[in-house]
Write a structure and sequence with these properties.
seven-stranded parallel β-sheet, alpha/beta, 46% helix, 246 residues, two-stranded parallel ribbon
Length: 246
């Protein structure tokens, strides 16, 4: 069995990615930190080196520039053993309802861009019959709600993509993990009034991901209670659901 030693974090500037970088560094993994502005990650890379002795390289990566993804993947040396797709864009639902640019940004960032880069990782891992792909989707993709159906529909598509990828690659010894967080305290949700009992920290999400990768789980919810919350929401009849203010 191939030992997994290098982790690529796509969207490494996010709070979850920072927590995940620290977790993997503490376990002895090498990190490839990819973000639109990698210079902003120099302090994180230095901290990983000083605190954990971890090697951390910085890579420019713009998720929405799908025409650059092939060159980006080709440039990685070594190729990562674990690829984590963390980037996302919540956007503004109200603005997106009337402004196509905002709507398009939500859809491309959360679905098209993720599929574009993960297709490249999948081809590499399929050829070598090893590796792990982790995609951070969302419970928002489990049922369309008036409050965020652009974001939710993109995440629904991403969840279905990861499911199909898992079905395709499982016999090639490639592990595909789907992560479905509920509310998480991050800069993306700053200013929102989030219910503490069902809201996770970035560190909690990172710990859950590392544990799930090690156990080769298929789908995880963070926090676990979201599995049951979404089961209830999905079971609400449509004629009742459409009357709810969700």
């Amino acid at each position: 069995m191939t030992k997994l030693t290098t982790v690529l974090l796509l969207g490494a500037g996010s709070d979850i990615a920072t927590a995940l970088a620290r977790k993997y560094a503490s376990l002895g993994y090498g990190l490839q930190l990819a973000a639109r502005n990698p210079d902003n990650l120099r302090r994180l890379a230095s901290d990983l080196q000083i605190r954990y002795g971890a090697r951390a390289s910085l890579h420019p990566f713009d998720a929405t520039r799908t025409d650059t993804h092939q060159a980006f993947w080709t440039s990685l040396d070594p190729k990562p053993d674990i690829t984590c797709c963390i980037f996302g864009y919540l956007g503004d639902q109200k603005i997106a309802e009337e402004n196509w640019e905002e709507c398009e940004k939500i859809l491309i960032t959360n679905y098209v861009a993720a599929v574009s880069i993960l297709n490249l990782a999948a081809a590499h891992y399929a050829n070598g019959q090893y590796g792990c792909i982790t995609g951070i989707s969302s419970v928002a993709g489990e049922r369309g709600r008036a409050g965020n159906y652009f974001y939710g529909s993109a995440k629904a598509g991403f969840t279905a993509y990861l499911s199909g990828l898992r079905n395709r690659l499982s016999h090639l010894r490639v592990h595909v993990l789907t992560v479905k967080p509920g509310f998480v305290y991050t800069r993306m949700t700053e200013g929102m009034r989030l219910p503490a009992p069902v809201t996770a920290t970035p560190e909690e999400v990172a710990n859950a991901i590392v544990k799930a990768v090690n156990k080769k789980k298929n789908v995880i919810y963070v926090r676990w209670v979201w599995r049951w919350i979404m089961l209830v929401i999905k079971c609400i009849p449509e004629n009742i659901f459409k009357k709810l203010n969700l």
